[in-house]
Design a protein that fits this description.
Helix 1 (about 15-35) packs across helix 8 (about 175-190) and helix 9 (about 195-210) crosses helix 11 (about 245-260). Strands 1, 2, 3, 4, 5 and 6 form a six-stranded mixed beta sheet that branches. This protein has helices at about 15-35, 60, 75-80, 100-105, 110-115, 135-145, 165-170, 175-190, 195-210, 220-225, 245-260; strands at about 1-5, 40-45, 85-95, 95, 120-130, 150-160. The chain starts with a strand and ends with a helix. It has about 260 residues and is an alpha/beta fold. It binds flavin mononucleotide. Flavin mononucleotide binds near residues 16 and 91.
Length: about 260
């Protein structure tokens, strides 16, 4: 099992990195228990060259490989592709994810048009000194669901300005255990084959939008080539979601689609 952690903090040994490392320790405990081999890699967005989006829309119109910004973005995408499970974590700055993380999300905007991460599990984390993390987690949640990920869960942790690793461990011992266990089991049990109502609805809204945008765009051809424009297709990948949930999500998605796309 391969895990990739993406740390959005500039501080490579800050609170966010410490929380990630504690969850990784727990993932190793789970892997040992189940006799699974675990591979782990951490990417620090602050150490990489990820330039600001210029808004030229070339990624949307021609494909991300034509982006004029030649930096580390595509290398991160390869790492995500190779991983089974991802932890994405950011510090909260003024009520939202910090700028480094938001810039990365913006540069990944083409994935909202051409979702490519169905079949991958993600856990979302936000650290904060003492305030709320709901807005930061919502920023993550909206983007990553649209990218096709299976959202295992999301947690905000209050870690002050800089909390010792041991203190984070003792204060959040139970939560960290639960997060590690849940992420491990979600990947091992392929929970992504049971998409949530919201994920099914998101797929339906996107599907309705691209069904109406018949043109020669990269986006349209991507959806067509995946077979996702077929009205019988209810998700990006084969799944075992309950049929009533699927119908409900498709009904809700069809009603909402004209309002949001
Ligand atoms: C520029 C800046 C803005 C911040 N904004 C908030 C905030 O709005 N509310 C809050 O409770 N903490 C805020 N914090 C504290 C961080 O969210 C918190 O210390 C976080 O855990 C830092 O993570 P890191 O060590 O991984 O960078 C801010 C910190 C900085 C440097």
């Amino acid at each position: 099992m391969k895990i990739l952690a993406i740390n959005g903090s500039y501080r490579t040994n800050g609170n966010t990195a410490r929380v990630i490392s504690l969850i990784i320790d727990q993932l190793y405990v789970e892997a040992n228990r189940f006799g699974e081999t675990l591979g782990f890699e951490m990417v620090d967005l602050g150490k990489l060259d990820i330039q600001f989006c210029h808004g030229c829309r070339i990624c949307f119109n021609r494909g991300e490989e034509h982006c004029p910004l030649k930096d580390d973005l595509l290398a991160i995408k390869i790492k995500i592709k190779e991983a089974d499970g991802i932890i994405i974590a950011a510090p909260t700055y003024v009520n939202d994810v910090n700028g480094i993380t938001k810039n990365w999300i913006d540069r990944m905007a083409h994935v909202c048009h051409r979702p490519e991460y169905a079949g991958k599990c993600v856990y979302l984390l936000a650290t904060v000194a003492d305030g709320p993390t709901s807005h930061a987690l919502m920023t993550f949640n909206m983007a990553l669901r649209t990218w096709g990920f299976y959202l295992v869960g999301q947690t905000g942790l209050k870690t002050g300005a800089l909390m010792k690793r041991q203190e984070i461990q003792s204060r959040y011992e139970n939560q960290i255990k639960k997060i590690g266990r849940k992420l491990f089991l979600s990947i091992a049990e392929k929970k992504f084959t049971q998409p949530s109502f919201l994920s099914l609805m998101t797929f339906c809204i996107q599907q309705r939008a691209w069904q109406r945008h018949i043109d020669d765009s990269v986006d349209y051809h991507y959806w067509k080539n995946q077979g996702w424009l077929d009205a019988r297709q209810s998700f990006y990948i084969p799944h075992h979601a309950n049929i009533i949930k699927v119908w409900g999500a498709r009904l809700a998605g069809s009603l909402l689609a004209p309002l949001v796309s």
